[in-house]
Amino acid sequence: MALDPNEKPGQPITKFESMLKTDDVYFFDAEDFEDIIHYYLNNGKIGLAKKAIRIGLQQHPDSTDLKLLDVEVLVFEDKLDVAEKYLDELQLLDSHNEEIYIQRANIYSKKDNHDAAVTLLKKALELSENSLDIYSLLGMEYLFMDNFNLAKESFMKCVNFDNQDYSSLYNVIYCFEFLEDFDGAITYLNEYLERNPYCEVAWHQLGKQYFSKKMYKEALASFDFAIISDDSFLGAYFEKGKVLEKMGKYNEAIESYETTISIEDPTSHAYLRIGKCHEKLQNDDMAQYYYYQTVHEDPLLDKGWLAITDFYFKKGKYERALYYINKAINIDGENPLYWKKCARTYQALKNFHEADFAYKQAVDLGNYEMDTWIQWSQVVRENNDFESVVQILKQGLEFYPESTEIEYRLVGAFLALNKFSQAKKHLLNALQNSPEGKTVLEVEYPRYYSTEWVVNIITNSQKASR
């Protein structure tokens, strides 16, 4: 039986550690050694677990359970060939020991042969009297195989065995969420709560499902029940604050976030949400204060820097916005969101050279959002660099081949370069896919939109489509 990792060391463990310190040799029952080893494994003390296994096997050389714990450590350390050799020897002695099949399954899982692992775990189920751990392992294998329905069923069996197996409960809900079956998750959690009405974890998860479906009143009630079940449940207060924000109850949301701060040390996420609420309430001084607290508490939280930059950007204080986004870039120059925000700020300041550089950095770091390509093309267009406009838009079209918004802009850029055949190709394609989208060309390139050449192509295209 594995010990809880939070359990305090018992008498055998204290005695064992005393033996290690004094170099005396004490005798332990094999069961004591198992408890000692499980304690060290659960607490990540692999070195001490290996010492206990070595000494345990010296005192009990025929103990299959201790040998299996030795195999478990070998598998953990990726010494799979040695582990398999030991399992072959153990299976000759005890072919009906389910733990042998479990460890073989772990080896196959490590080798990414999850089908074989599932087969072995099912064999272990046939031999096991206590199948809780095996169903949990099966659930994980099914997750590796992206079989979320079977994973869900396995974890449900774990919860049926033990209502307080919250790890399995979380995994059940994870499967529902991945399958986008929010109604199924709600039904399951409500049935679970009929049996366990004071389970704060289930109420919390139920609230999150309602929140996903924008059923804010139901979500709020669920989080309130979670708090009634455990008035120190930090996550419930935080999620309740998010619901209250969605309902426009910003003062109440602030109270909920402040409660999380009173229960535990302040977090940057709580400061950020409070700042957002104050901004909605137009309490600008308080919003600024909490945004400053956010980035002070966690300088690596990108949402904090983006929030304070947005705060000044929306007020037209672009120099101030630029100051903070540059501070963010100095801390993490690999964040594409920072560079994109930096580009937008330079763009607002009409510093198109720096904006061009910043957009390039954002794209190089992996920001391929459509508006990035469009805004970047707008920046280089301000410098009358239509060759670059074409190159940028063509890159964007590779990511968004159905985007007529990009194609209409390409038409204008090609016309600016007097490349009529390319312009005609993109114009016809855009008109075929979205004739009403031609307003993009009209707004962005009015000089070319009204030319006889463009008017004729549009007119002929309309006639052909009738």
From TrEMBL:
SUPFAM superfamilies given in the database record: TPR-like (SSF48452)
TPR repeat positions: 98-131, 132-165, 234-267, 302-335
InterPro entries documented for this protein: TPR-like_helical_dom_sf, TPR_rpt
SMART domains given in the database record: TPR
Keyword Kinase belongs to the record: no
Keyword set, alphabetical order: TPR repeat
Stated name of the protein: Tetratricopeptide repeat protein
Species of provenance: Costertonia aggregata
